[in-house]
Amino acid sequence: MMTNTVTVTLNNGVKMPAVGFGVFQIQDADTTQQVVEEAIKTGYRLIDTAEVYGNEEAVGKAIKASGVPREELFITTKAFIQHMSYEGAKEAFAESLKKLDLDYIDLYLLHQPVGDTFGAWRALEELYKAGIIRAIGVSNFKNDQIANLSLFNEVIPAVNQVEVHVFHQKQADQDYLASKGIQMESWGAFAEGKNDVFNNPVLKAIADKYGKTTAQVMLRWQLQRGIVSLSKSANPERVRQNFAIFDFELSDDDMAQIATLNTDTTVFADHHDATTVELLAGFVGKSF
């Protein structure tokens, strides 16, 4: 078993693994448990889930079955929009803690910048001060929303988890977050295969040079940029491949070539488009 000792240090001193395993869209409980167990066995120590994914219980079972001491793992989960209020965030956290069958969460995020994010953030601040969350952060927030939340609350987010991949590289956003001591974490590292990314000629040429896959090149690119990355696969071999990114290094020329792929546009729904916000706001007050 390989182990990943590469970490980043968050703005409160907590160390976070630089490479993680996500379980978005893996809903079958048995499959989720199996792949998370495989990920931990492979060497992943950061596991990322969310209440809306519907698989926290299976992740919790995998954690228990792994035999890896709890303190060696870094578990992230998130409050979704229907719980985006002070009381709602408290309820969501308690439910996630129960489903994961854990005593504390390493990183807890507000999943979307929709609803009463200030009320929810104050709930997270209280849970953080109580010591049952080691770090708190946000997901899908733009820089102005990060600034607003930070300026009018006590605790600055430790992490902003956002869409980052070779087609949407967000260097300016990363620079802003870094200036505030906030760690950028990516979701959608492979752009969910959009634009035939796995067969992109620039990425394939680089991958062939190192005897690696295009997926490994994309994850290594994020690692060298100082971005915490998440990958996901229900295929055990791919799980192992996606972790094998610590034995090669992209050159400056490789990084420059990858930079040319940037289009600075999302390949998903724009979380900040008015129609998307209206759609997401429809979840407020609902339960799943």
UniProtKB/TrEMBL annotation:
Keywords of the record: NADP, Oxidoreductase
Pfam families documented for this protein: Aldo_ket_red (PF00248)
InterPro entries hit by this protein: AKR (IPR020471), Aldo/ket_reductase_CS (IPR018170), NAD(P)_OxRdtase_dom_sf (IPR036812), NADP_OxRdtase_dom (IPR023210)
Keyword Metal-binding carried by entry: no
Listed CDD domains: AKR_AKR5F1
Domain (NADP-dependent oxidoreductase): residue spans on this chain: 20-261
Cited PANTHER family: 2,5-DIKETO-D-GLUCONIC ACID REDUCTASE, NADP-DEPENDENT OXIDOREDUCTASE DOMAIN-CONTAINING PROTEIN
Family under the similarity heading: Belongs to the aldo/keto reductase family.
Name under which the protein is recorded: Diketogulonate reductase-like aldo/keto reductase
